[in-house]
Design brief:
2 copies of one chain form a homodimer. Chain A is an alpha/beta fold and 394 residues long. Chain A folds into 2 domains: 281 residues, Alpha/Beta hydrolase fold, catalytic domain (Rossmann fold, 3-Layer(aba) Sandwich); 96 residues, Orthogonal Bundle (Rna Polymerase Sigma Factor, Chain: A). Chain A is built from 12 helices and 14 strands. In chain A, strands 1-4-8-5-11-12-13-14 form an 8-stranded mixed beta sheet, sandwiched between helices. In chain A, strands 2-3 form a two-stranded antiparallel ribbon. In chain A, strand 9 and strand 10 form a beta hairpin. In chain A, helix 4 packs antiparallel against helix 5. Chain A is globular and about 65 Å long. The two termini of chain A are 34 Å apart. At the A-B interface, helix 4, helix 5, helix 6, helix 7 and helix 8 of A face helix 4, helix 5, helix 6, helix 7 and helix 8 of B.
């Protein structure tokens, strides 16, 4: 209830935010990627909310999921009808309370919403990178985020938080920069993507590769973009973000246009669930780039903390960050055992870790769904307060 | 153990079987489909095993799943390396014991393995039906199967058995022809397809529609068939036939060609699971037709026993058939609650029903997997024996 009121209040208040950019890793000091290739300069698109404290100890970095962006909360223009993707969670009086904390969110490397990615100009050719953009990993993404945090003059983050691919970034951050964060909040994620997750990403990518308009990734400027393939990839993935329960509750076998079955094989959106998936696909291609989609899904496939750093208890044992790990009962993309594996390793390493499996019908996407945020807030709000207090004591 | 021995023995013994065909529903008496359209004549491809008893009371009809065919067991030629799709379950000394029972299996209407379907010649045009083939439902499929049973001179089947779409056919049979079966064995199925199942079928079909070689279904005789779209549809579906556990056990994150990650976005089969799915897709397009795939998946989407016949306790309450309903713990396409719903309705209707949830890591496909058959046999063998004995008493 508190949260809903706060949310309503903040929408009435000025909530405008600007997307900022900064150029990091200039040509003389390019970023060396996990693949061995280098890239630089890198433009990073990011947004900040609230004020950095004089002690620079109240900064929270939000890592977005697969197809998110820096626009985590608020609006860019007063006419915008849509708020940022986590507006219910980030803002004045909200769990990531911008009256207290300085919140940062940046678009990932390889993305398509402002940070250098396949749509950016390749300085060597003067044309967009397209499929020549280097392969990126979660570790590359986090290196760029850390460089942004350095640029902002923040030595140690109060928290790094993220769900799904965002949660993978949080884990990577804790392993790679153990001294740079006071807490880590991992939502609906795991220390690696399992085979089923790789399988779904693979069929989605295959839909893109198969689209004649994809043309091996060299489609920028074309009249026809690989929208069909990208939409299909999104439709497949979207099924995995929902739970059987939620999809059944919301759609079941309801028909879209009529009370009667049509017995028409060409009718692709006869059931509501079909129409909903088509809509999701259509919306997605308006805001996302196929080359970026290939890159970020592959980064997710490649993520494996044990493969990169050895046993979890070792890699996560290097940080003194306090951990909060959250799983959702109906999340089948990152089922609860994946969270438990992280929790066990942290306990084995004698680290502070809180764990909750939240009961939600909404599957993997639960951490993004407004109705489910109060439940998450009841964990995150006190966790952040305690972390903030513990820093003050130090 | 018994089963394995029996199986080995039968492979040594003559196990050759011939595909037979019969033409039913001639032009003067065509089949009226659920859609209202009519079709006739209909050729049905079927195979039989064992001998029909003089009392004609030992016939078991096997309903195949989505992409199965009449070739349920044995071989067509001594040189065949592959046996029928349920060879571990059907044969002398096996659970569907062809020394005792007369087993029938027929390719479904709309299929592509001998029974009239989109690849057959449309008598009105003299060319293949293709996309003009009428829309079919599970009820249409069962009407044709029943006509075949009539043709074989069998008044009452000892059992109808099937898994997945085959299980839907069993339920339809019991509701539509309550007096024509003494028992019904429903494996890994439900009284309807849930929204998640419809969703997966929908994205699979969309992959086919999107293949430029599909050409609205008019591709017969073309150099390029819509293999890419059909393979992708199969790959998507195949993920749903496995469980997270089995896929993780078998493949996990193992690489296909090397011990080293390649950091190459064009490498589509870097992980073993990717390579496995590609193989599944490739194998499938060798044996299946895209137009048929569209038809049978839509038939599955449309299946809803309650929608067709009213409350389950009423529709299933009309038969005196003994029921055996089997679910698998890791089947997420037809999760156990779907089986329980059938069992509850049968109990409410005071019918004989046995129910088991079998513990298997193999997901939806468990009923087809050799290692899981002995577990199923321990239910089916005595169930059939008791049913057969109860008929004798009558």
């Amino acid at each position: 209830m508190t949260i809903e009121t706060a949310s309503a209040a903040s929408h009435a208040a000025p909530d405008l935010v600007e997307r900022q950019t900064v150029t990091l890793f200039d040509e003389s000091q390019p970023l060396t990627l996990a693949s061995g290739r280098t890239i630089g300069p890198i433009t990073v698109a990011y947004q900040t909310y609230g004020e950095l404290s004089p002690q620079r100890d109240n900064a929270i970095f939000v890592c977005h999921a697969l197809t998110g962006d820096a626009h985590v909360a608020g609006r860019h223009h007063p006419d915008d009808r849509k708020y940022g993707w986590w507006d219910g969670f980030v803002g004045p009086g909200k769990p990531l309370d911008t009256n207290r904390y300085f919140v940062i969110c940046a678009n990932v490397l390889g993305g398509c919403q402002g940070t250098t990615g396949p749509m950016s100009i390749n300085p060597e050719t003067g044309t967009p990178w397209g499929p020549d953009f280097p392969f990126i990993t979660v570790s590359d993404i986090v290196k760029v985020h850390q460089a942004l945090v350095d640029h902002l003059g923040i030595e140690r983050l109060l928290a790094v938080i993220g769900g799904s691919l965002g949660g993978m970034q949080v884990l990577e951050w804790a392993a790679r920069y153990p001294d740079n964060l006071a807490s880590a909040i991992v939502l609906a994620a795991g220390a690696k993507l399992n085979a089923q997750g790789i399988a779904f990403n693979a069929v989605g990518r295959r839909a893109i590769y198969a689209d004649p308009a994809f043309k091996s990734g060299r489609y920028y400027g074309d009249e026809h973009l690989p929208r069909f393939g990208l939409a299909l990839a999104r439709m497949i993935a979207h099924i995995t973000y929902l739970s059987e329960q939620s999809i059944e509750m919301k759609f079941g076998r309801k028909l879209q246009h009529s009370d009667e079955l049509t017995y028409d094989l060409l009718k692709e959106t006869e059931f509501q669930i079909e129409s909903y998936l088509h809509y999701q696909g259509k919306q997605f291609v308006e805001r996302f780039d196929a080359n970026s989609y290939l890159l970020v899904t592959r980064a997710m496939d490649y993520f494996d903390l044990v493969e990169s750093y050895g046993p979890l208890a070792n890699s996560l044992g290097k940080t003194d960050a306090r951990f909060l790990v959250v799983a959702y009962t109906t999340d089948w993309l990152f089922p609860t055992p994946q969270s438990r594996e992280i929790v066990r390793a942290l306990m084995e390493a004698r680290k502070h870790v809180s764990f909750a499996e939240l009961d939600s019908p909404y599957g993997h996407d639960a951490f993004l769904i407004d109705s489910e945020l109060p439940m998450l807030a009841r964990l995150v709000t006190p966790f952040l307060e305690t972390t903030y207090r513990s820093i003050g004591d130090r």
